Amino acid sequence: MDRFRGFxxxxxxxxxxxxxxxxxxxxxxxxxxxxxxxxxxVAARDLPSGHLMxxxxxxxxxxxxxxxxxxxxxxxxxxxxxxAGPMRRGEALTDRRxxxxxxxxxxxxxxxSVEDPASVVGLRVGDRVDVVAAAxxxxxxxxxxxxxxxxxxxxxxxxxxxxxxxxxxxxALALAEAAVGGGLRLVVRS
Length: 190
What we know:
- It contains five helices and nine strands.
- The chain has helices spanning 2-10, 12-31, 75-78, 101-104, 169-181, and strands spanning 37-43, 58-64, 82-83, 98-99, 108-113, 128-134, 140-151, 162-167, 185-188.
- It is rod-shaped and about 105 Å long.
């Protein structure tokens, strides 16, 4: 033991330098990205609901393979499509976050300006709603039943919210006709 202690005392600087080098190497190894990362398309900035995606809104990120969600869209699939709900920078662009023609299922995307902003509070993308319009003599009439919410507006004071709904061609026409009279409201279905 005295021999070992003597060796350490005589060579303390080279031993200390070797230990510091090992510590630096271990530190660098711990922050090095894992080799099993994959590329994924993500939002380049915060995006409001209903936003039409451009090339500037999309970027690529590398993530661990097990952290990549299924059904991530590529850059070409995302550009030109609408955001289904508000997205944060770095969030993956998946088929549930971006409205794609396949997701519409043959329906059309109708935009409805809603008279009462309170009627969109609590709505989520994917909810089923009835669209109701004011009729004669103070009565209400259902214009469309069971439309699916595809996009939601970003709340802005003093504006009329516009909600994106997937509907059939006939229902889209009925919504357009009812919108002329104004006063549209949404009722959430269970």
